[in-house]
Specification:
With 169 residues, this protein is of the alpha+beta class. It contains 4 helices and 8 strands. The protein starts with a helix and ends in a 9-residue tail after the last helix.
Length: 169
Amino acid sequence: MNLDQLSAEAGFLFLREGPRWRVFRHPSKVVTAHDVQSLEALLAEVDRHVQAGGEAAGLLRYEAGYAFEPRLTPLISRSLLPLAWFGLYSGGETIDDFDVSDAAPAITDGPMAEITREAYCENVETIRSLIEAGDVYQINLTYPLRFRVHGTGARTFERRRPKKTGVSS
């Protein structure tokens, strides 16, 4: 299977399943959720589809968890991206690997952090103070990274994924 060609298909999705890949193509339907109500409807539709013998594959964003905690649901309105995206498939295919021999080379410039060292250190000190005060037990300090990619997504993926290092018996 040529990854460049597959990645151009609407609804194409692949997932790692142990040492192999699970490939999903041509969904009968794509469902998305942007708020609590549509997320509940999406999850119910995915469940019905799977119970009827179909397969579902997609993504559930971290922020979708806010829908399950009433104190956090107001944060959902700040999200511009869907909380969930799922393709409903009749089935998938398991393969050993992808062919990317025809993919154009990918070149990345960066990554460049969108935070200064000074701002990062200030954030770390604030986090330490909050933890020491017992206000929180953990904070994930994240910040955007910017980079430029030339070429195809398939080639970028191929260059970034772990390579097989040998065969075990």
